[in-house]
Amino acid sequence: MSIKLVKIGSGFILLLVVIGLMVITWVNRELDRSRGGTTDVVELKDKPKPYSKIVIKNVNILSPDCNQFIPDQNVVLQNGHILSIHQDTVIDENHEIVDGQGKFLIPGLVDSHVHLRQSKNDLLLYLANGVTYVREMTGNRNHLKWRDEIQKGALGPKMFIASEKVHSTGGVAGIFESWTRNRINYATKKGAAKKIRQLKDDGFDAVKISTFINNKMYRATIEEANKQALPIIGHIPFSVGLDSIYDAGQCEVAHVEEITKGMIRKFGGVNADNAIEFLEYLEEQSDAIAIALRNKNIAVTTTVLLMESLPKQKFNLESYIKEVKLQYANPGPLEGTSLSRGWLPGNNSYEEPAEVMNDLEKRKSSEIFWKTYVDAIHIMTRALAKNNVVIMAGTDANVPVTIPGFSLHDELVSLFKCGMTNAQILYAATVAPGIWMESNTGMIKEGYEADLVLLTKNPLEQIEHTTSIESVFCGNYWLPKNRTTQLLDAVTEANDRSRTIDISELIK
Predict the structure, then answer these.
(1) Distance CA 96, CA 54 (A)
(2) Are 139 and 164 in contact (CB under 8 A)?
């Protein structure tokens, strides 16, 4: 009898192990799809070839302060760098000539807040849109590998890679959160030091802080990160608050939204009854906040477009989503999975539930809140620009409904709506992140890397002209218009092969 019980018990344990492995495999598969990892990866049949020498002839180049275009310059590129800039350059017959007459040359654009996840095709979308550098804000080992491939000559934008968000959840909950939500968790000072050293050794460029890290682990993280010369960037933790961040050692806030959320908490919350009073309160405080950030050399990344989209996604998604270039969005994040919501109507994580939409009072109250939320973002962005805070343009790409590459141009338009000048906006998308990252990019100067965008229209006259792309230069690749079109077509085809939901009625 006992032998039978042992056999039954052993069989039951084996069954549980098998079921457990099957569940883990299924969850990993669903997580991978939700992050874009099951979408066909583009393999270009006709790959661009690196150039040796190029002269962009008689072109107007953007000045380092982004305030003007310097006319009729010859910009000589060699092996991925700007060799010289002169008005009277003698053209070597071994140089390939690009006609810049009547055109406008700007530094390659930088999206300072992206989420590549497992969507490698996004790298091509960035290049096709003139984005030659990205700051990945939830980095993983795949991203480190992609960066290494690009540094060795693969086609793609340069990459600054921050770690996954750092939380302070311990035990089984922390392990589960790290598995399913791409989080780093530790609950002791020793654990913090060990993990930060590992991030440094792995090659990450910064440590990203989450909203939910406790104050003790926040301080421990900063202490070790300073030893390892890793910048601390990201959110403003609830446990720390806006007033305490100035002297904490964090050098960047990843969203303007983080500041306005902090002010909402200080105000005691916002609702339909006190919305006007809150905006007046924020107006009164915004300059002082901006000056404090500037004095402590804390940069702020924007992500204004995403905030502006929230009321549209919440209350008018079916109409709004047709304005988005969905054909370029990776089908995994777009469609969602059984474990994660996507972007589409009925399955969008931002869309208001029926109980709000069908209750006039609740809907009106929610609409007032979200309008106030966006207005606050605009107020704070204006104050940051007015007080010369380091502003870096970023989009939160791959968060619904921000399309990699395309969304940066829309972000620049949103910054104009906030009151920033076109020169300030271009600076935030080129020079500022180049300086912040201590990279040899972001300006058109001799010795700098040849990350450039040739435009047919002047973006200082109208910021929307950043989309008038005729050529993209990234490292030692030159991508004329037919090449960037090829990249976009290849991504669209790969997406179409990987779809499980027909989105044809949602595409313009």
Answers:
(1) 5
(2) yes
